[in-house]
């Protein structure tokens, strides 16, 4: 096994962590710039939400294939190719004239580049750090920087959007990428053990299609509803599903799951015939991999869901600017930084990783419940400090342990494939966090608003029916100022009633979405209980490992 000299390992780790940082920060730093992007591209909140979701969706759909590409062409070469694609994408995003170009550069090209880079980066840790404490600390840092990037992303986005431009935020990523290019010579390549496998095109097409259909279905829940379609689903003017029928979310998710079952069957068939597979399903017989992947998914679902929900609330309910929104999320960011440092150095020496992860989910659940309670009467972003700090500390605690636990439980030659599984879970979680939070907010908003309209004495029965239809068919979270402009034709009493209903429905939506995130935390606890009670050999003290 080739490893770099001790004098250069620090520089290698900095380069790898910088690459991880720009990839993960991309998934959260535009959450606080939603209103600015809506205005710049003359689009809707749902359009920007879809762009945010598509970035992580592309990574999730192509991550396993990206890992296999690294096995075929070499991990360092895959990293360079991925970084090149990513650089082209961030350049196009910075100069994009429309939402379509924005999504092409950010959501698709950057997502594809990241899908090739991330698995290669985790394998490069194996080739550049000796087995034992050095490699374990590198993995811990790799996991921690992801949580930190997700946490401080909103602050970076807020600063750029408020004082410079969101375009310069993407341009700065290009500068980081150019620095990484200049440091490639110090990174030792990860040797490919054995023969080079052939690419499994059937497995790739099935896995990518299945993942895209599942997450796309959930994304559409924001526009059409989770279970029942709020409006007609049309394509080129033709009605595919009428309002009141089953939601496209249900249809697409079910089809996607069937495709993924087909993927599993194909991979098993290829394995029995001794043919190369896209993914070795035997990995999931390792408890640390199967349970740890679920933990990774739910951890990032919680983090991105919490950030998106609060960012949307403070911008639309409290009228906060991008920088104010970023500052509001600051307690979460600082808590992630603090917990990643404490948990990685202090708790890991005294407690098993499983115990630390369980504690992290417990803290996160308390934070989500606190956020839900605070949302009912909050008049300032400062009132969310305690809840945000708890969520950040819990997520940082989980991040400091889980990835290292998984990677230390598999042989080095399987690191690339395992990293593909981990990063796929992470990006599915991040994608679902944003999309499910948005879908749940809009669904609860419609239910609450229509109920309050029907109970309001300010409107006649006919007016109530018209307002119910308008809310259902054009469901969006809007600010009081936007709503006032849209309801100028109403009387003063009616306009006041509409504003009050809008505010109550928004607050109820945020309360419910954080209750949903608390439930996701309970699912995380259940997944973490399946983790091995004792750490793998590579994490145990030397005398235990020798024994």
SSE order, one letter for each helix or strand = HHHHHHHHEEHHHHHHHHHHH
The amount of helix comes to: over 70%
Individual helix count: 19
Strand order of the largest sheet: 1-2
The total strand number stands at 2
CA-atom Rg in angstroms: 23 Å
Regions with pLDDT < 50 over 5+ consecutive residues?
1-6, 537-547
Query: The biggest beta sheet, please?
Result: 2 strands, antiparallel
Describe this entry's structure for a reader:
With 547 residues, this protein is mainly α. It contains 19 helices and 2 strands. It has helices at residues 6-25, 34-41, 45-73, 75-94, 99-128, 133-163, 166-182, 201-224, 248-272, 287-316, 322-328, 330-350, 353-374, 385-407, 415-455, 461-473, 480-486, 492-528, 542-546, and strands spanning 233-235, 238-241. The protein has a two-stranded antiparallel sheet with strand order 1-2. Helix 3 (45-73) packs parallel to helix 5, helix 3 runs antiparallel to helix 8 (201-224) and helix 8 (201-224) runs antiparallel to helix 9 (248-272).
Which features would summarize this protein structure in a list?
mainly alpha; two-stranded antiparallel sheet; 2 strands; disordered N terminus; disordered C terminus
List the helices and strands and how they pair.
Layout: H1 6-25, H2 34-41, H3 45-73, H4 75-94, H5 99-128, H6 133-163, H7 166-182, H8 201-224, E1 233-235, E2 238-241, H9 248-272, H10 287-316, H11 322-328, H12 330-350, H13 353-374, H14 385-407, H15 415-455, H16 461-473, H17 480-486, H18 492-528, H19 542-546
Helix pairs in contact: 1-5, 1-6, 1-7, 2-3, 3-4, 3-5, 3-8, 3-15, 4-5, 4-7, 5-6, 5-15, 6-7, 6-11, 6-12, 6-14, 8-9, 8-15, 10-11, 10-14, 10-15, 10-18, 12-14, 13-14, 13-18, 15-16, 15-18
């Amino acid at each position: 096994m080739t490893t770099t000299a001790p004098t250069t390992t620090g520089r290698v780790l900095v380069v790898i962590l910088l690459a991880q940082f720009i990839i993960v920060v991309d998934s959260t730093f535009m959450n606080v710039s939603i209103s600015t992007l809506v205005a710049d591209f003359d689009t809707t909140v749902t359009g920007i939400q879809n762009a945010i979701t598509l970035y992580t969706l592309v990574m999730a759909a192509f991550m396993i294939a990206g890992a296999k590409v690294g096995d075929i062409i070499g991990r360092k070469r895959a990293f360079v190719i991925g970084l090149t694609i990513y650089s082209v994408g961030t350049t196009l995003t910075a100069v994009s004239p429309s939402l379509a170009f924005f999504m092409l550069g950010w959501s698709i090209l950057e997502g594809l580049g990241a899908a090739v880079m991330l698995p290669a980066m985790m394998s490069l840790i194996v080739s550049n750090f000796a087995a034992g404490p050095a490699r374990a600390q590198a993995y811990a840092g790799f996991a921690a920087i992801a949580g930190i990037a997700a946490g401080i992303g909103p602050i970076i986005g807020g600063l750029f959007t408020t004082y410079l431009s969101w375009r310069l935020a993407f341009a700065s990523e290009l500068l980081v990428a150019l620095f990484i290019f200049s440091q490639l010579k110090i990174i030792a390549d990860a040797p490919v053990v054995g023969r080079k496998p052939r690419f499994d095109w059937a497995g790739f097409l099935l896995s990518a299609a299945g993942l895209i259909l599942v997450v796309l279905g959930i994304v559409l829940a924001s526009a059409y509803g989770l279970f029942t379609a709020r409006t007609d689903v049309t394509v080129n003017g033709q009605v595919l599903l009428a309002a009141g029928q089953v939601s496209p979310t249900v249809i697409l998710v079910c089809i996607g799951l069937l495709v993924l079952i087909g993927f599993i069957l194909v991979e098993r068939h290829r394995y029995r015939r001794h043919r190369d597979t896209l993914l070795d399903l035997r990995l999931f017989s390792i408890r640390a991999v199967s349970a740890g992947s679920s933990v990774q998914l739910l951890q990032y679902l919680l983090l991105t869901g919490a950030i998106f929900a609060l960012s949307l609330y403070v911008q639309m309910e409290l009228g906060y600017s991008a920088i104010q929104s970023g500052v509001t999320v600051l307690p979460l960011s600082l808590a992630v930084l603090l917990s990643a440092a404490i948990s990685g150095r202090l708790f890991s020496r005294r407690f098993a990783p499983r115990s630390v992860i369980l504690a992290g989910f417990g803290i996160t659940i308390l934070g989500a419940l606190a956020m839900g309670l605070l949302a009912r009467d909050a008049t300032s972003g400062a009132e969310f400090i305690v809840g945000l700090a708890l969520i950040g500390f819990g997520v940082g605690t989980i991040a400091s342990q889980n990835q290292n636990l998984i990677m230390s439980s598999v042989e080095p030659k399987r690191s690339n494939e395992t990293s593909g599984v981990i990063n796929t879970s992470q990006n599915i979680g991040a994608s679902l966090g944003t999309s499910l939070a948005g879908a749940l907010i809009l669904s609860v908003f419609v239910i609450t608003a229509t109920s309050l309209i029907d109970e309001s004495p300010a409107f006649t029965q006919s007016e109530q029916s018209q307002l119910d239809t308008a809310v259902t068919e054009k469901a969006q979270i809007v600010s009081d100022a936007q709503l006032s402009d849209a309801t100028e034709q109403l009387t003063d009493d009616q306009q006041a009633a509409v504003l009050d209903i809008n505010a109550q429905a928004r607050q109820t939506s945020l309360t419910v979405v954080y209750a949903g995130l608390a439930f996701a935390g309970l699912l995380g606890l259940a997944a973490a209980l399946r983790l091995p009670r004792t750490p793998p050999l590579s994490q145990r003290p030397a005398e235990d490992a020798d024994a």
